[in-house]
């Protein structure tokens, strides 16, 4: 491992381009724990947390356990193996620093500020939940709903937040929690699509929330200025001025560091607590005559009973009142949002959040009930409204009447005081009014400060994951706490913009809905992870229930519509658009989300349910097993196979590694992920499978028998034509033909593709990879020799030159090929990409000579349904008897109509039986001449000896027995040349060779002469089970 210039961590033993496995070069040292535990030295390691760290551990090291192959092969290699105990961080962090790995006991930055559960979570959540609602709107809510329904409003809000808190606790304790709060929890649970969409709107919501809270503070300040006749410009502009100054001060506190921000929060908490206590104290202070005229009395049972029932006015209802109160409860993520700054987020977030919900819920209930027991709904504020005589008490102010005050005039005109009419009743009730104003300041500023810190932290975590590449600029952190200074500046700009021009009354419900959408997804994340039943879902926090989490998610969605239906729809629309964007972009991340787990569970479930259903001809679809070698080796074969299966059928691209298993396995394991990754990147919907065997035929036989799962098994073998069969050697030909026999034995449909230019481009791929590897090595050496980014002189410059010379020499060894070879390679590459392109207007000629169950007709029909082949039409060629041409044509036309397969032309070939030309026969004779035994001219003993010596050769007897079939293949080639030379693709029924009767070389000659000098040709033979039906 090396650290290159710029501070970037680079794993020098890992080539990311070629996806090769890491090769660790450090020497192994004996660990005393291993020796003392077992009494002897062993490569095995004792269980240790270091083995389970991510590559980007903050400790800078993760332990490397020996691989199974290293343990298994160690004695075969005479013990010559080295396994490092640790490996340095490979720097997977986005900002050129090691990624956080908070399970480490060793902190990276000793000076970094880390908070415990009280300062980090409890205080923040309480300050965020205790908002201006407590002092300004709570009395009005209980005036409208009465304390009976008022308690329901608070409890319902607490139910939603508590369920969310429980779900969040479960997710937090299911592994290490890093920075990013709600975004981190949702993205690691549901994947980047949900996380990326909610992360962006959650960060934006927090940024705009800063403006909302600051404007609330500024409005209170401007009210005081107005009362003291100290307005600077006018009310609106004064709010803007005070708001901007406040945001600048809050930004200064935030940028100064988390320690300063935490101290400011404690000061604000003290002020807020004093203000709350001040309300309780005020309810016990004997009410003066002035207070009584405002509707404020000491605790009275008749007031308490009168305020029990709801009294909704001015079009208000339970849901509208609930919608006004609920945003006050949306501060439960304040602690989770700074998860990266917590000492132990797994313990702190559950404990602090749930306790904050309990304390704030009780506070809201306590203050509301105290006010409900001491303040009447309406009061005139007139001291002269005292009842002097004995008059009957009736109407809406019975309790005040019984206490000696006549507020009956409030039934006729609106009074200025009382729970229903004045938002400042808390100030009047309290023991010392200015403290309530201070509490209001504290509530707004603490919430603004929490949002100002939360937005950049969440946004930074989102940008670090590089889900939105355009936003990666904001991922960089500064200082010992990795502070997102750029994020702070962006949040500041958004806040100021909304303070200056934003209509906050309109945007407030949207922000509340953004927060609720986050809560809904946290609940759904917990439900989804539990539902998937992944073994990796093991939260340490056990007090949760998956169905309760689902209920919480549904409640959040309902509350979104209760608060504001159009804001809810807008939130869903934005989230869906962002979800689609991230899904289309497909960020290269894998967090082991529950979405993956549920997909796997669904796949297994569907595969099992499919196994219980018998196959039906109507549902037949080709499931291709393509012998392509590596995924990149035969692109034309793979592309055509993919055209047959597309997204609707199974396609497995297979490779057989031939040779000793110990040697082949290493290459096989290295290529598995590499090939599957290439298929995914090139959007080929196929699987890669490989086996290691002593022979190619054995490997293919294993694939034919064992590939697939349940009903999702291949039913069609697709293979390329062996062009070099005449020079490949007997064993190779026997293996190739043996594979075709095996396919027939296992009742596979068989498809053989021949292209004149060939199919195999593996030599070109290897050359390309070699050049890339050489270029990468040169880059690595350049970086090593010039650690100062090209500014070094003298020795370093000389070393760089020599490294270039070395690499130039290495590349020149496999330099450019001769012009003739280069031209052949160019033609081969062009042909290989033929089926990737849209096919020009033309025909697919189908020579359906033998009824094989319909596969030879179904496959070309499937091609015509694909986008790339839509301009191609089918032409059908069939064999017919002389004199019956029209009748045979009508019969085939009728059959195709019943199959609902359209074709432009049906051609009946009635001269197939005619002998081929002498020139064509001569080509065949020249083709098979080296493989003929010519035993006919020998005596019986010599002939028998020759057969035993060369059992694979074509005998005169065999040629005589199969003369008609041999002539048929030659004649068919003549007809194909005559009728289908200009076709885009030719499909011909494949001839079958009887086992033990037709020699391998004669069969190869049939296939060769049949498809020689033609456009791309497919030989197809179904398994003689119907794949077409005309029944509904």
UniProtKB/TrEMBL annotation:
UniProt keyword Zinc-finger present: no
Keywords recorded for this protein, A-Z: Cell membrane, Chloride, Glycoprotein, Ion transport, Membrane, Phosphoprotein, Potassium, Potassium transport, Sodium, Sodium transport, Symport, Transmembrane, Transmembrane helix, Transport
InterPro entries noted in UniProt: AA-permease/SLC12A_dom, AA_permease_N, SLC12_C, SLC12A1/SLC12A2, SLC12A_fam
Keyword Transport: yes
Subcellular location: Cell membrane
Residue ranges constituting the Amino acid permease N-terminal domain according to the UniProt record: 30-96
GO biological process, one term: cell volume homeostasis
Transmembrane region(s): 121-142, 148-177, 198-218, 238-257, 266-285, 318-340, 352-376, 432-455, 485-504, 510-531, 543-567
Domain Amino acid permease/ SLC12A residue range list: 120-625
Name the record gives this protein: Solute carrier family 12 member 1
Lineage summary: Eukaryota, Metazoa, Chordata, Craniata, Vertebrata
């Amino acid at each position: 491992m090396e650290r290159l210039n710029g501070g970037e961590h680079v794993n020098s033993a890992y080539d990311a381009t070629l996806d090769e496995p890491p090769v660790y070069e450090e020497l192994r040292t004996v660990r005393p724990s291993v020796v003392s535990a077992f009494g002897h030295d062993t490569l095995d390691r004792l269980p240790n947390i270091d083995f389970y760290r991510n590559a980007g551990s903050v400790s800078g090291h993760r332990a490397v356990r020996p691989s199974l192959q290293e343990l298994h092969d160690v004695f075969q290699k005479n013990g010559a193996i080295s396994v490092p105990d640790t490996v340095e961080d490979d720097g997977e962090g986005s900002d050129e620093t090691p990624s956080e790995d908070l399970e480490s006991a060793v902190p990276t930055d000793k000076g970094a500020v880390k908070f415990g559960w009280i300062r980090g979570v409890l205080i923040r959540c309480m300050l965020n939940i205790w908002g201006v609602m407590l002092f300004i709107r709570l009395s009005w809510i209980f005036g409208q709903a009465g304390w009976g329904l008022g308690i329901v409003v608070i409890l319902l809000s607490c139910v939603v937040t508590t369920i969310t808190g429980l779900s969040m606790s479960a997710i937090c304790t299911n592994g290490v929690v890093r920075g990013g709060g709600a975004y981190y929890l949702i993205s690691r649970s549901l994947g980047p699509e949900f996380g990326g969409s909610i992360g962006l709107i959650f960060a934006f919501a927090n940024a705009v929330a800063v403006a909302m809270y600051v404007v609330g503070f500024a409005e209170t300040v401007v009210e005081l200025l107005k009362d003291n006749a100290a307005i600077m410009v006018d009310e609106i502009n004064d709010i803007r001025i005070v708001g901007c100054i406040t945001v600048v001060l809050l930004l200064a506190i935030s940028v100064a560091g988390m320690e300063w921000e935490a101290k400011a929060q404690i000061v604000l908490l003290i002020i807020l607590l004093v203000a709350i206590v001040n309300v309780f104290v005020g309810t016990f202070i004997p009410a003066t005559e002035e207070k009584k005229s405002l509707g404020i009395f000491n605790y009275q049972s008749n007031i308490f009973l009168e305020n029990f029932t709801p009294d909704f006015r001015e079009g208000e209802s339970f849901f509208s009142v609930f919608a006004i109160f609920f945003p006050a409860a949306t501060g439960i993520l304040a602690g989770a949002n700074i998860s990266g700054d917590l000492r132990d987020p797994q313990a702190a977030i559950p404990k602090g959040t749930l306790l904050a919900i309990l304390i704030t819920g009780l506070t809201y209930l306590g203050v509301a009930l105290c006010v409900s027991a001491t303040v009447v709904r309406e009061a005139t504020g007139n001291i002269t409204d005292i009842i002097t005589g004995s008059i009957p008490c009736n109407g809406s102010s019975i309790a005040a009447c019984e206490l000696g005050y006549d507020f009956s005039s409030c039934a006729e005109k609106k009074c200025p005081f009382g729970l229903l009419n004045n938002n400042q009743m808390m100030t009047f009730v309290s023991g010392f009014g200015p403290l309530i104003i201070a509490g209001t300041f504290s509530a707004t500023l603490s919430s603004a400060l929490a949002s100002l810190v939360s937005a950049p932290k969440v946004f930074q975590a989102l940008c670090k994951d590089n889900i939105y590449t355009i936003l990666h600029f904001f991922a960089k952190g500064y200082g010992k706490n990795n502070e997102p200074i750029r994020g702070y500046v962006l949040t500041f700009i958004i806040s100021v913009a909304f303070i200056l021009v934003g209509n906050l009354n309109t945007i407030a419900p949207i922000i509340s809905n953004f927060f609720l959408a986050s809560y809904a997804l946290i609940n759904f994340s917990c439900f989804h992870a539990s539902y998937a039943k992944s073994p990796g879902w093991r939260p340490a926090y056990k007090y949760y229930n998956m169905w309760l989490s689902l209920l919480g998610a549904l409640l959040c969605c309902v509350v979104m519509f209760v608060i504001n239906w159009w804001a809810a729809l807008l939130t869903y629309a934005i989230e869906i658009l962002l979800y689609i964007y991230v899904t289309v972009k497909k960020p290269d991340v894998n967090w082991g989300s529950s979405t993956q787990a549920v997909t796997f569970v669904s796949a297994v479930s569907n595969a099992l349910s499919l196994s219980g259903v018998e196959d039906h001809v109507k549902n037949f679809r080709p499931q291709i097993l393509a012998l392509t070698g590596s995924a990149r080796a035969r692109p034309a074969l793979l592309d055509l196979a993919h055209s047959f299966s597309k997204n609707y059928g199974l396609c497995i691209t297979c490779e057989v590694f031939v040779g000793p298993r110990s040697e082949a396995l290493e290459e096989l394991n290295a290529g598995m992920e590499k090939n599957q990754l290439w298929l995914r990147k090139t959007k080929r919907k196929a699987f890669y499978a490989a086996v290691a065997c002593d022979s190619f035929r054995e490997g293919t036989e294993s694939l034919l028998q064992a590939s697939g799962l349940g009903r999702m098994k291949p039913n069609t073998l697709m293979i390329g034509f062996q062009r070099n069969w005449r020079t490949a050697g007997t064993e190779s030909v026997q293996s190739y033909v043996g594979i075709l026999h095996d396919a027939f034995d296992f009742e596979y449909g068989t498809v053989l593709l021949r292209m004149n230019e060939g199919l195999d481009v593996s030599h070109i791929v290897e050359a390309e990879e070699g050049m890339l590897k050489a270029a990468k090595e040169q880059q690595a050496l350049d970086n090593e020799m010039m650690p100062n980014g090209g500014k070094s002189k003298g020795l370093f410059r000389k070393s760089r030159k020599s490294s270039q010379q070395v690499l130039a020499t290495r590349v020149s060894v496999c330099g450019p090929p001769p012009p003739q070879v280069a031209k052949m390679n160019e033609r081969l590459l062009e042909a290989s990409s033929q089926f990737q392109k849209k096919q020009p207007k033309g025909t697919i000629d189908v020579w359906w000579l033998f009824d094989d169950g319909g596969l030879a007709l179904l496959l070309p029909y499937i091609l015509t349904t694909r986008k790339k082949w839509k301009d191609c039409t089918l032409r059908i060629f069939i064999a017919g008897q002389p004199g019956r041409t029209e009748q045979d044509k009508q019969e085939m036309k009728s059959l195709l109509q019943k199959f609902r397969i359209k074709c432009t032309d049906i051609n009946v070939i009635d001269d197939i039986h005619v002998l081929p030309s002498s020139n064509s026969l001569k080509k065949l004779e020249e083709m098979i001449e080296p493989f003929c035994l010519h035993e006919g001219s020998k005596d019986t003993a010599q002939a028998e000896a020759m057969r035993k010596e060369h059992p694979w050769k074509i005998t005169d007897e065999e040629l005589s027995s199969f003369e008609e079939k041999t002539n048929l293949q030659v004649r068919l080639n003549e007809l194909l040349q005559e009728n289908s030379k200009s076709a885009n693709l030719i499909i011909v029924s494949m001839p079958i060779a009887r086992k033990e009767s037709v020699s391998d070389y004669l069969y190869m000659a049939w296939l060769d002469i049949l498809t020689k000098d033609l456009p791309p040709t497919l030989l197809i033979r179904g398994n003689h089970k119907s794949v077409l039906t005309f029944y509904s």
